[in-house]
Each structure stands twice: as structure tokens, then as C-alpha cells.
Amino acid sequence: MAPARVLVLISGSGSNLQALIDASNTPALPDVEFVKVISDRKDAYGLKRAEAAKIPTTYHGILPYKKKFPDDTEKPQFSEARKAYDADLAKLVLAEKPDIVVCAGFMRIVTPSFLEPLHEQKIPIINLHPSLHGDLVGAHCIERAWEEFKQGKRTKTGIMIHYVIAEVDMGEPIVQQEVSIEGCETLEQLQTRIHEAEHKLIVEGTKRVVERGRQ
Ligand SMILES: Nc1nc2c(c(=O)[nH]1)N[C@@H](CN(C=O)c1ccc(C(=O)N[C@@H](CCC(=O)O)C(=O)O)cc1)CN2
Ligand SMILES: NCC(=O)N[C@@H]1O[C@H](COP(=O)([O-])[O-])[C@@H](O)[C@H]1O
Known about the structure:
Strand content: 15-25%
Family: Belongs to the GART family.
EC number: 2.1.2.2
Protein name: phosphoribosylglycinamide formyltransferase 1
Organism: Zasmidium cellare (Wine cellar mold)
Number of strands: 7
Pathway: Purine metabolism; IMP biosynthesis via de novo pathway; N(2)-formyl-N(1)-(5-phospho-D-ribosyl)glycinamide from N(1)-(5-phospho-D-ribosyl)glycinamide (10-formyl THF route): step 1/1
Bound molecules: the ligand Nc1nc2c(c(=O)[nH]1)N[C@@H](CN(C=O)c1ccc(C(=O)N[C@@H](CCC(=O)O)C(=O)O)cc1)CN2, glycinamide ribonucleotide
């Protein structure tokens, strides 16, 4: 059987991409091939990690689309710029014929202009999110959990790998893990604790979806 073709979307440092690369073709994540890494940010260090691993990369920035639609709305579901961006992103992704798309710190809300073309091809899109399903959604969830911990509103948070649907961070969870905040004295300590857990969970979540695709 041919290796599963994995395409990864990133925006930042790419430590989760690195975890996937390091685990690839070991028992933790067997028989996979990274076909491309796409970033919406040109300065994403994850692009350098991909290049070091000899994985093809593409920078797909939003600016040209914003310039094309100067009077655009900021609401993701109605933005012409975002829809055009997402439609082109879908074309870039489909050109690689992936078996799975992994959002590993990809910090853009995607619209049906991206989701539908991939859904038609039955290509699963999964995402790493630093909260449990139905708890915190959106960006900056680690910071928000930390603030609530300091206010005495919570002692735990978590992480999950979930399917990506239009409703942000509400797609079916694939695997989740609770993370205690207790014992952390700074936000940085919580971030470290969460990132260490993420690096394991993203490998497990990707492996499960790859295996489902092979059934
Ligand atoms: N339609 C969906 N798109 C995305 C999902 C999803 O479940 N459905 N998951 C995200 C990843 N994500 C959280 O896990 C997330 C990323 C970014 C944002 C966000 O508010 N982005 C802003 C820009 C923020 C910035 O530039 O710093 C935006 O897109 O306007 C929310 C959730 C991947 N996309
Ligand atoms: N809502 C999505 C979100 O907040 N994702 C977060 O982006 C980081 C990516 O780190 P990385 O670039 O080092 O892999 C991760 O901590 C992940 O939880």
C-alpha cells in the first residue's frame, strides 16, 4: 500500500509539524509521506522546518486578496477576500492529492469555499486545538484558560484533535486529553505543559485518521 499523503497547514513555529515529521514512519505514525506544507505567514518558522525535512512548501498569503476587495467585511463567513483566498487554498491543496489535511497551528478560520471542495473529494481535515471540545473556542485559548485559573474559575483545561467543520472548533473530536493547570506558576509553564502534550496528541490523532482512511 502506498504511504498516506499528508498535507500540513501552519502559521507559526511549527513545533507540532516537527512532532509529526519526527514520528513519521515509526510505529507512532507509520507509512506516511508529507506532500506539502502550506503557511499563510511568510515568516513562519515551520516553513524552515519543512525545508530542512525536504518537504515542499508554499506560502499562501491573504494580502493580495484583501487588496482585491478593499471594501470587504471582516466577518469570516461573508468576506469576499476570505472566500477567494480559501478557494485558491483548496486548489493548492487538491493539486497535491492528499489523503489527509492537518491544521497544525493554522491560524485562519476557513470557510465553505475551502471546506466544500475537500469534502467533495472525501479528504478529512483535522485540527489541533488547545482546549477540550465545547470548552474554549477560537484563538488564544491557552491564555484564556490561564486567566480563568488565576480567577479561580477552573483548575483544568485540555487539548483535542478534531475534524474541521464550518463552526470553529466544534467538529467531532478524534482524541482529547485533559491538562491540569495546577502547579503552573506562570503562563509560560502552562504553555510548555500544553505544547508537550500537543506534540504527542497530534501524532496520535493523525495516525487514527490515516488508519480510518485505510479501512
Ligand atoms: N472553519 C474552521 N476553521 C478553522 C478551524 C475550525 O474548526 N473551523 N480550526 C482553526 C484553528 N483554530 C483553533 O483551533 C483557530 C485559528 C484561528 C482563529 C481566528 O480567530 N483567526 C483569525 C485571525 C487570528 C490571527 O490572525 O491571529 C481569523 O481567521 O480571522 C480561530 C480558531 C483553523 N481554522
Ligand atoms: N486555535 C488554534 C491554536 O491555537 N493552535 C495552537 O497553535 C500552536 C501552534 O504551535 P506550533 O506552530 O509550534 O505547532 C499550538 O499551541 C496550537 O494549540
